[in-house]
Amino acid sequence: MSISSPQWPVTEPPVWRAHWIAPAGVATVRNAAFEARTTFALGRPADRAVLHVAAESRYRLSVNGVALGVGPIRGTATVNFFDSYDVAGLLRPGDNVVTVRVQSPNFPTFKAAPVQPCVLVQLDDGGLLATGEHWECRPLPGWRCDVDEFTFQVGDMEWHDLGADGCGWTPASVVTVRGKRLLPRDIPALDEQRRRPTAVPVAFSVPPGVAAHGIADRMNTEPHHPLEPLPWGRLCQESGEPVVVRPRGDGGGVGLVVDFGREVNGAVEIEVTSSGRAVLDIGYEERLTDERRLATVALDYRFADRYVLRPGRQCVTNLFGERGFRMVQLVFRDLDAEARIEAVRGVDRRYPFAERARFTCSDPLLDRIWAMSVETLRACATDTFVDCPWRENAFYVNDMLVENAGVLQAFGDPRLSARCLRLAVSQARQDGLVPGPVPPGLVPGMTEAESADRLVLLAANLLLPLVVEDYLAYSGDARLVAELVDPIAAVFRTFAEWADADGPIHPPARHWNFVDWSYELAGRCLDGYKTAALDWCWVLGLQSAARLARHVGRDDEARRWSDAAVRRAAVTDRVFWDAERRRYSDRADRGPDASSLVQALALLACGTGARRADLVAALEHGDLLEPELYMQSFVLRALAANGRPGAALDRVRRWWGPVAASGSPTVWEFAVVQHGKAAMDDRGSLCHGFSTAPVGFLQGTVLGIVPLTPGFARFRVDPRLAGLRSAAGSVPTPLGDVGVDWYAGPSGVHGRVDVPAGLEGELPDGRVLGPGRHDVEVHGGA
Fold first, then answer.
1. In angstroms, rounded to a whole number, what is the distance separating the alpha carbons of residues 439 and 154?
2. Are strands 181-184 and 79-86 parallel, antiparallel or unpaired?
3. Among 527, 559, 544, which residue's Cα sits nearest to residue 473?
4. Secondary structure of residue 104 in the 3-state scheme
5. Rounded distance between C-alpha atoms, residue 144 and residue 137, angstroms
6. Tens-place pLDDT, residues 176-232
7. Distance of alpha carbon 229 from alpha carbon 308, whole angstroms
8. How would you classify the pairing of strands 159-161 and 304-309?
């Protein structure tokens, strides 16, 4: 099956004279790292000089000793990206030196899909500088390749000896990167902030010894003994004096935990002056375990890196791999002289969203939930949406159901959403299905073929049109929609092969029938079964795809998908409806298992159908399996759409309220079936982008601002305060921010609406609000 490729933003690419280069023999080395350099002569100062660089899979670039940046942004198995830097101010008459450090896992992860380690560099100057055989390469001095795996999603840990002498330089080998398009960076530079810790809650000594492997395991289990007081608080002060760590008489090490008080997504930097050689181990986590240490091990995950210090002042940092954390554990080992910790910083790299949306109301808990959700969206947006900074830092297509809408609603910037949608369909398989992680890596213990099948998340494929429809509504970008209609059609063709005309989908068990973690945690395996959740997702996907096709003039597809949605809804109702219990069962055998999610999906798919009253009653009864925070998004939508905004608001308080009350700066991955860090065998994330559904609910239902036409040309104004005394805020649109200020009155909701030029607001009674400020009353909205 031929799948059409997405069309990336049109920019003027360079005419490539450069060749991909690498050291000889590096193609088979796992966790490989090397340096490449060249010297070139410049006759006079340059008025303009743009340097382009790409790498498989990460680079650190410097010109004449000045660090320029780290990159590139994430690609897939079919697409790579290059960065461009204006280096005119760094060039000088005479000799100039360009050096680039490169690292590649050299196997597929959820962060990279490398062909082999290599780099490409070119200066737009008429041929003065371009990678080729005249460049020199060598293995990165001090980099150790045979190390422990960090996580299979991220790759291996970093182990770097900062004082190692490098071996000799050798001529570069020209290599070929086949099967990938090379495209210019399509998003702005990330916002990079360096943050001091807020506290040093723990300091301790540990027994002597420096093991070659099992570093995270040792950090996780070695005895900790309280350390005599030192002025650790200096590390939290920007102008603080250094903290001196001295060798211990028993040869043991010195450790401390620093707390940044927020989620950091990027790297850690430790400025340290060492009087001799020493080892610094760094562990990453989001909370203390037993108030003494960080849990650097969680089943098969090992959250630790190692750096060997050289004498003198140095900056220890993650060279290539992004690290997510709230706290880091530093352990100095094998000290033969004192080390002075000059500073510890978290390097937070995030997509540069502007502050636009606001929300405040008469309930401080909801204000806290709003702020917590928006901060979570920020922390989970870098070069793509990511599931969580700490555990995986992976982009999952299914997470976009919530993250995409939340980002558009909170910040109004569609560029990251467009990039993620194009990345997702760029890796569509021959059967049209889109893998869940982007890029798809390898699942431990599986062959490449088995892993490729397992990482297809079925519901994510069916619900992809809903993500695209949210994008269209908030951006107005019909061009991208037109690109995505064919990939969506390919998905539907494959699902149609898995269902009889009068029967539900019977998906192959080799694919992961993941809908929500609640099923997995409750022991309800859906793989290979006929399930109501998957069939209702198909109905919703068909309905959404029909609207998208109609919008871009694909009327034949629109009619076909609309008709198919009606047929599939009738089949799903017949197969899964439990007449005795007045609800839909989870599986076709109509066993006792039933979930709130299935009832919500059915309500959204069937609108005001004959089952409406029963389904709403089932949702409010409280005896169904509740979805985790991720798919609670559909339950909130279903209740609000069926006249139960108060019940939806109660769910927000019930499930997100305890997270806010805990003092967490971000929303957890789990807070319904399991809770916080203890979930998933202590692998639960405390910052998860797909758990931010309150943003959309508080904007769209409480403030009552929802686009009715693409790009907000016309939007609905229908606030539902649901018992609140007041609510106010702003909602970003492509043409400006809609501002509202509501309060509950005796006959409804009163307040003010600010409409930007070029937009129209529509009240429930049909009145239209043109640009400007309006005092309005909405009857029944309280």
1. 11
2. parallel
3. 544
4. strand
5. 17
6. 999 999 999 999 999 999 999 999 999 999 999 888 789 999 999 999 999 888 899
7. 26
8. parallel
